[in-house]
Backbone:
């Protein structure tokens, strides 16, 4: 979920601030507990364009989990392009998603809105049967990244 606020700066200039949630909207989180992102624009048209792009880029809660993984990998790829993350980490995340996460049938069939704490714990239990304990956190990192980037219902 996102919205636009008009800001009047001390200099007298008007700026438009776009504010959107980065977490999934869920019953167990209050609105003030969700993390948010903001961006400032000179014109209302620019702010509306940004808000529209945010609404379109995230998968909807009814979308398959694979859409959420694509969204996460696209976001991580942008970080690599900006030099904020290593390309090798992106390759490793892609491998973990393909080899350990999407092969899990409940996840492959899940919708974005199905992901919650219980769902994640059940996944970790199943993952423990497939990979050694010391690899579990490495294999689960992309899943955690995907599930915390959120679905379109929140933003």
Residues:
């Amino acid at each position: 979920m996102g919205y636009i606020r008009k800001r009047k700066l001390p200099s007298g200039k008007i700026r438009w601030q776009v504010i959107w949630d980065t977490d999934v909207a869920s019953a167990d989180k209050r609105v003030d507990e969700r993390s948010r992102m903001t961006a400032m624009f000179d014109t209302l048209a620019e702010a509306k364009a940004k808000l529209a792009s945010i609404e379109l880029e995230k998968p909807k809660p009814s979308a398959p989990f694979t859409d959420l993984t694509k969204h996460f990998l696209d976001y991580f790829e942008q970080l690599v392009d900006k030099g904020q993350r290593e390309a090798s980490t992106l390759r490793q995340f892609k491998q973990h998603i393909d080899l350990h996460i999407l092969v899990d049938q409940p996840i492959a069939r899940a919708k974005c809105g199905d992901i919650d704490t219980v769902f994640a714990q059940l996944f970790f239990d199943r993952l423990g049967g497939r990979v050694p304990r010391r690899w579990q956190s490495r294999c689960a990192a992309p899943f955690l990244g995907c599930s915390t980037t959120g679905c379109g219902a929140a933003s």
About this structure: The CA atoms of residues 128 and 136 lie 7 Å apart. The first helix runs from residue 44 to 57.
